[in-house]
Amino acid sequence: MPRKWRQSDFDDDGYDDYDEEDYYEEEEYLEDKEPTSTSSVVPGQSQSFTSTTQPTATEVNEPETEEGLWACPVCTFDNSLDSLTCDICDTPREDLSEKVSDPSTSSKEKVPFKFDTPSPDEKNLAARGLKKSPIRVAQSPDDILNGARSSMAKAGTSKSISSAVSKLNVPGLSQSSGASTSESHVGNGSSSAPEGELADALKQMNVGGDYMESKSRENADASTSTYGLSLESYEPEPWMLKDANKDSRQLLHLIVVGHVDAGKSTLMGRILHLLGRVSQKEMHKNEKESKQQGKGSFAYAFVLDEGAEERARGVTMTVAVAHFETPKLRVVLLDAPGHRDFVPNMISGASQADAAILVVDASIGAFEAGLEGEGQGRGQTREHAQLVRSLGVEQLIVAVNKLDAVDFSKERFDFIRGTLQPFLKQCGFKDGSLQWVPVSASEGQNLTMASTESALKAWYNGPCLIELVDSLKPPPRLVARPLRLTIAEVMKTRTLGPSAFGGKLESGAIHSGTKVRVMPSGEIATVKSIELQGQQLKTARAGEGVDVGLNGIDPGMLAPGGVVCHPDYPVPVATRFEVQLLTLDIRTPILKGSQVILHVHHARQPARVDQLVSLLDPKKGTVLRQRPRHLTANQSAIVVIVPDEGVCIEKYSDFRALGRIALREGGKTIAVGIVTDILERK
Amino acid sequence: MKLVRQDITKNGAGSVKLVPEEPEDMWHVYNLVAKGDRVSGVTVRKVMRETASGAGEAERVRLKLEVEVETVEYDKVASVLRVRGKNMLESEHVKLGAYHTMELDQQRPFVLAKAVWDAMAIDYLKQACDPAASADVAAVMMQEGLANICLVGASITTVKGRVETSIPRKHGPAVAGYDKALNKFFENVLQAVLRHVNFAVVRCLVVASPGFTKDQFFSYMMLEATRRDLRPIVENKGKIVLTHSSSGYKHALKEVLAAPAVLALIKDTKAVKEVKALDDFHTMLANDSSRAFYGPGHVFAAHDRLAIQTLLITDELFRSADITTRRKYVDLVESVKAGGGDVYVFSSMHISGEQLQQLTGIAAILRFPLPDLEDMEL
Where do Low complexity bias regions lie (chain A) (predicted)? Predict the structure, then answer.
């Protein structure tokens, strides 16, 4: 995987070096023309494809041939030529000379591991037609247009399969691979009907994404096998992949963040109202209630702030969930609290999110407070932006709110944009995935339709907020992976029974009757029923946030932060693990033995820093110093963390959603990071 | 602790007779008694006695014994100390040199004899017998769904109770369940407070939480107190302080102890001083890292250059079984004091002490920067 500083030509951010894999995807995305040319050749030639074309493929697939770097065969990290072992995983460096000298040797011997090069086992599997779906995608130009990632992966796959097959000289096998190709053609023909096209392509892309990722895990971690089966051995069951849901619109989890009183709840309440999600009667009730409490302007916020305490204080405290639909998406809206005391709640919400809206208060003084913070600590505009990025959100819409308070001044909007942009870039957001929109929640300007206010129309004619939301791209879902369902909250309802919980399916799928293992307790239970917004569902797949009732388990075994898994593929319960950290703006340094609160998905737990392993160069990722005495602001380091109790966590390279952590102390987020290794587990 | 009789000289042999009075005193005794000391007192031992018929019969006998200490065990929950060693006092039931485990408890006098009373031990004795030092603060650390009830004494912090409930989120049909769960949670916390907090002893009860949980709990507590006529709470309303903390975990206690409202009540207690000293160390490390060091290697090296202004050290280090190690640390403390520096001996039973313990147990703020020391691997 390319190192960030090499990318700096088109993307200059100094923040997110620990997040290399995200960048890898980005890069593929940008390069999508390249694989198109190679992969489109494949269909007709799949049987006659020989090793002569191999060098081209190798070139596309192996960025590590670039000078000064070598790619680790295990974790694909790009190391400098000076180091003999991988900086990340300590794998010894392979001899590159062999590969360069003889391009005709079989790729399976010489090519260090890459996402898009299948291992010998997989070639066999694929040749037997067991994993047809990934091969199929590569054949269709539609798919290449729609799913750049998958096409790249598949281009490599089908080529190396055919080459492997031809080298093996087994006619029967090569025919079967040909058969699978043509069969997939048919599949694609039908799917290119205009209506289902996008959804289908996306679906395939998702499957492709899994496939690609599952391979990255192939040789990455054999050690997991001692604790349950290794993730790679997983074969998804057919029902999991079938798309039973008629609504072709993709699901998107969208979190709304921002400084306290920026107007997050009001903005979202207004949008829900405009979209007809709130009945006139309810709205009337909210208006009456807010007037009674002397907070007339909170009427829309009351749509989301349902708790008595929240209404009385006019502050969102927990993450409220609402649903709405746009032409392309089914959006699950998560309204996060902005008050600094409730950042832990916001973290657990953000860990579910695919995209975010950052609401910024444009009125004089309020924006500055959100960024710099009043009194102690930093403002939540800053903290939230850093947190959502480090929790895996890549796409961000910045909604500059309350523009009515500054007479829809373009100068103010530009000033805010100019101030925030460098900071967000530093957080790791790309220019391409950042969008800016001026809005006014109280006046209802530029929310669901273009503005009617002449002062705003005069200088802004871009898309309104909902159009921007509609343009967001849902990330690939890991449907074909073993089940991972994080528990966000435990509840008791009449329909779901006493052992019920709500959470998001990070991978895999469930239907009623599925046997599951509830971690960290390790108890086995059966899915009794699944609900989405109070509606019964038959199946739920990766990406969906659902409420699930379980049979055969004590409610006490369920707790927020737990993970419901496939019985044979339990999530590790780590009691000691290594992370790569990036410290934020901290005043007290992080020392060996520092007490912190660890946040991973919905789990929060006291933990301590057990060891400061090494200090890294934030730009290059090289080790600056072994065993540093302390970590100060904006440093990157490898540290070992020991939670008070076991915590459900995965290596970031294995499973991103469960491999991202945030450390907080004294009410402030002090560091964010990714799990690089699990050292001890229960 | 009551000092009944003392016969000691600095750096010489001697003995004291002590009567522990409070649970905290047992902790002091634990810090005083070291391996090789002699402890004598009244104890109970099961003795086999032969009856006329020749059958053995066990009998519990109260007798006075003196043991040469080999191991000391501190039971935090029951507040007792178990001292194990060889018997040194001849008696009709126990042979000389036989092993015996003596239990030291509150209100049971005992005599402690040491071959050497070093400065640390004498200081500690003085501190332990100072009646003014006791300052109990009860703290309820809360966040939604989690509460820790802690008692902060002069030198120990104990978690008396922990309440954990999972509280559903507010949306959808679960809204009613949310209020119900929250009230149940408050009720559990209130019961724990009533059981563990003795308002006759504590100076104040601090309720700390992020957000509004503390206010919600306070109003719940007052409402219930009036309704059910809970005298201890109604009468001590003035002793209840609300303050902000970042979480409901035990280690957020240091924020509570630093909060101005609490600080005013317990200004001079050891716990508060320790929190402040550790905070200073952290600030120094952040601002000028060449003036703050931790770990024995660095601290001793800094002391060689007479650079130590403030020494932070946990009592755990003095409890070392190895005489020479203890000697080394005692000498360090004395020589820093002689050089005009400040020494804070942290109780490892406090939050700040626990934290310092994680940080190798010893740290120092220097008078002048020593940049070369920073690069040294020690």
Answer: 45-58
